[in-house]
């Protein structure tokens, strides 16, 4: 019962952390793109003035940053849950 209760109690925290992680990843991507490409905005896939290489590079970089941030937040949340409850989350 305690495990289910802690899971329910931590659900809103996990949702909030997910939103925060998405915002942080978006900000980080914009900053990295400025450094890599020297432009303020990443190319949009529908922009006819951008080439395939630029579009796919931006998408790959964005995906990599989002995946790393998501994994870091997920792992940090699991470790925090274990410290608070004494059990590793399912």
Automatic annotation (TrEMBL):
The keyword Membrane applies. Pfam families: DUF4235. InterPro entries: DUF4235 (IPR025329). The chain crosses the membrane at residues 12-29, 55-73. Keywords: Membrane, Transmembrane, Transmembrane helix. This is DUF4235 domain-containing protein. It comes from Actinoplanes philippinensis. The lineage of its organism: Bacteria, Bacillati, Actinomycetota, Actinomycetes, Micromonosporales.
């Amino acid at each position: 019962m305690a495990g289910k209760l802690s899971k329910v109690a931590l659900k809103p925290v996990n949702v909030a952390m997910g939103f925060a992680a998405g915002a942080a990843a978006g900000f980080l991507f914009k900053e990295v793109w400025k450094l890599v490409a020297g432009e303020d905005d990443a190319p949009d896939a529908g922009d006819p003035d951008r080439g395939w290489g630029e579009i796919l590079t931006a998408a790959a970089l964005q995906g990599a940053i989002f995946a790393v941030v998501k994994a870091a937040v997920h792992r940090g949340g699991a470790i925090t849950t274990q410290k608070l409850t004494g059990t590793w989350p399912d």
